[in-house]
Amino acid sequence: xxxxxxxxxxxxxxxxxxxxxxxxxxxxxxxxxxxxxxxxxxxxxxxxxxxxxxxxxxxxxxxxxxxx
Length: 68
Prior knowledge:
Number of helices: 2
Order of helices and strands: HHEE
Number of domains: 1
Helix content: 40-55%
């Protein structure tokens, strides 16, 4: 696996730490890999003119995710 280094501001670093803790990830790098995978799914959906939607368990609330 290739190694890449990033420098993040304090706010972004804290978000990564919070997400790491929330998902029980081993590292912030694992969170970044998950985020990249999700963005890849969003790009694929966009290419197919599809929508990415978050729906509540009972289906009463929907939120469309738009990444441009």
